[in-house]
Write a structure and sequence with these properties.
Oligomer: single chain
CATH class: Mainly Beta
Radius of gyration: 16 Å
Largest sheet: 6 strands, mixed
Number of domains: 1
Shape: globular
CATH superfamily: sav2460 like domains
Strand order of the largest sheet: 1-11-10-3-8-7
Number of strands: 14
Distance between the termini: 39 Å
């Protein structure tokens, strides 16, 4: 069991992951009842000039980054729990990339749009070599309408990769939410 992070906490990935730059980001989402919902997890690959290419948004419909440093995998799913995973190799991330923004979009089924729903989201960083959890983060979100959130970011500070626990929720769409938080340009 790894370290439990809270909103605002920053951690040096290189130090806590045994100097390995290969890991899995596991995102599991559970609802408080059997209300039907779906979750899309994403990683936005942000360049040093605060720009994100549409091809740099990694998710189910674009499952691999252009330089093959990030891969998306759709995990198990039922009405109560959904699981998404990203395999990441920071050694293969190009030098012009400054951060990887990790987030989600939750969609409620049409027959549940008027029902309030409590959703628990757990992010875990797992060392790919040892298959051990390095750290985790729990988020609880009260979903009334479809919801977008940013869980955290992996960012480069000097030559080291760090993780920042963000925990930001919005009822806006993905691009608008990222623009508000990071003042970025999507092209």
């Amino acid at each position: 069991m790894g370290k439990q992070l809270i909103k605002g906490e920053k951690i040096d990935i290189n130090k806590i992951n045994g100097h390995s730059n290969k890991f899995v980001i596991d995102i599991t989402c559970k609802s408080d009842n059997e209300n039907t919902f779906d979750i899309d997890a994403f990683i936005c690959v942000c360049e040093t000039n605060n720009r994100i290419s549409k091809k740099g948004i990694i998710f189910y419909n674009n499952p691999e980054s252009t330089e093959k440093s990030i891969w998306f995998e759709d995990g198990c799913a039922d009405n109560i729990e959904k699981k998404k995973e990203f395999d990441i190799d920071l050694n293969s991330v190009p030098a012009n990339i400054s951060k990887l923004i990790i987030g989600y979009s939750i969609y409620k089924s049409k027959n549940n749009l008027d029902k309030q729903m409590l959703v628990n989201i757990k992010l875990r960083l797992i060392n790919s070599i040892m298959q051990e959890e390095v750290f985790s983060m729990d988020i609880q979100s009260d979903i009334i309408v479809n919801n977008v959130g940013v869980i955290g970011e992996i960012y480069k500070y000097k030559e080291f990769w760090k993780f920042n626990a963000i925990e930001y929720n919005s009822t806006s769409d993905l691009i608008s939410t990222i623009k508000i938080l990071y003042n970025i340009e999507v092209y």
